[in-house]
Design goal:
By secondary structure, the chain is of the alpha+beta class. The longest helix is centred in the middle third of the chain and has 42 residues, at 68-109. The protein has a domain at 138-252: Glucose Permease (Domain IIA) (Distorted Sandwich). The strands form 2 sheets. Strands 1, 2, 4, 5, 6, 7, 9 and 10 form an 8-stranded antiparallel sheet that branches. 22% of the residues are buried. Helices cover 36% and strands 22% of the residues.
Length: 254
């Protein structure tokens, strides 16, 4: 009997504690449910998915994978093309500069680079030695160290070889002589060299190694090199020694 009463008392105590707890739990769940519903109602969000939207189609041929070797080849090709373009630009710039410099030189000397074709190809006379000019105005003033004779005459006057011979020098830029021609002769067994300086630009008619005849046109008068005014600077050397050009011509020219 005592045991029964004890069990009953314990059961009553459990019931007294458990029922309020369950009731509190039910009230807490209900309150939490209401709170979530209220939050959902107050802060409602929606997600709209366009039913007509379509993702972009990826084409297999629209991209490609490149190996490291192919990348290096492409880089090398690009670098070579850039280097070639730079080299071409440099060559064009150098060529343009050279043309400008040549043009400036011609302008400063007051001479033309075009050859006048309306000149006699052969000088007058019939001797073994002939004068290099058909005519001239006067002689230039001699001075110390000057090894030739200056014949003052207008620009473009034809210059002729004084005798048969072989061209040993022909240049557009002689040291002080400007445009000049040098010819070696054998006149009666005597070695003679004639030099014609200060010719006009682009008028030389002979090159090194050419064989020329007495009285043959070799160029035209100008003022290139170290020259004051247009004239022919003529040098005559006999057996490696300089001689007065005019005196030699007076003694030998026919």
């Amino acid at each position: 009997m005592r045991s029964f009463l004890t069990v009953a008392a314990v059961a009553g105590m459990v019931a007294t504690v458990a029922i309020p707890a369950f009731a509190a739990a039910d009230r807490g769940d209900a309150a939490q449910a209401r709170t979530l519903q209220q939050v959902s109602a107050d802060d409602a969000q929606s997600l709209v998915v366009a039913s007509e939207g379509s993702p972009a189609t990826l084409e297999r041929g629209g991209y490609s994978a490149t190996t490291p070797e192919e990348i290096e080849k492409a880089k090398a090709k690009e670098a070579a093309e850039k280097a070639a373009k730079a080299a071409l630009a440099a060559r064009l710039a150098a060529s343009s500069k050279a043309r400008t410099s040549s043009s400036d030189s011609s302008s400063s000397s007051g001479s033309s680079s075009s050859f006048s074709s309306d000149v006699p190809l052969v000088s007058p006379g019939s001797g073994t030695v002939r004068r290099p000019l058909a005519h001239f105005d006067n002689f230039g003033r001699p001075y110390a160290g000057h090894k030739g004779t200056d014949y003052m005459v207008g620009r473009g006057e034809p210059i002729y070889a004084v005798a048969d011979g072989t061209v040993v020098a022909s240049s557009e830029s002689g040291p002080g002589w400007g445009v000049y021609v040098k010819i070696a002769h054998n006149i009666g067994g005597v070695r003679v060299t004639s030099l014609y300086a200060h010719m006009n630009w682009g008028t030389r008619r002979v090159s090194v190694g050419d064989t020329v005849s007495v009285g043959q046109l070799i160029g035209q008068v100008g003022d290139t090199g170290r020259a004051n005014g247009t004239h022919l600077h003529l040098e005559i050397r006999i057996n490696n020694g300089y001689t007065n050009a005019e005196s030699w011509l007076q003694a030998n020219a026919g």
